[in-house]
Amino acid sequence: MPFEKIADQTGYLTLAEDGAVLSSGGALENDEATAARLMQVIRTAGAGTQLTAAHTIRKLSLIYDDYAYVICLSNRAYHVVKRSLEKGSPTHAAKQ
Fold first, then answer.
1. Which helix (H) or strand (E) holds 60?
2. For residue 38, which of 65, 4, 61, 8 has the smallest C-alpha distance?
């Protein structure tokens, strides 16, 4: 699914395993600083590494008051979407 079709998305990043920005758009276009911070979080969380034989982190969500970063590992790249969490939206209500 193209990033532009994701509901409430305001920006996206695709990051290589080493943290290099492969593509970006919207509010995250050319945002190297955010990409570096997100890679620090991914590495700290151990995303993409096998924790046990049955458990590997494949999706990570960072939820703030007004927005969230949803990070997924697919095809040896991290796909990041920044989503707006407007008050009254189902996504915002679910985090409460």
1. strand 59-63
2. 61
Residue 1 CB burial class (10 angstroms; 0-12, 13-18, ≥19)? exposed
CATH number where 8 lies: 3.30.450.30
d(CA 31, CA 13): 9
Q: What are phi and psi of 18, to 5 degrees?
A: -90, 0
Distance CA 54, CA 8 (A): 32
Q: Which three-class secondary structure state does DSSP give residue 68?
A: strand
Domain of residue 40, residue span: 3-86
> Within a domain: residue 91?
no
pTM of the model: 0.78
pLDDT in tens, 38-85: 999 988 887 666 656 566 777 899 999 999 999 998 888 999 999 998
Number of domains in the chain: 1
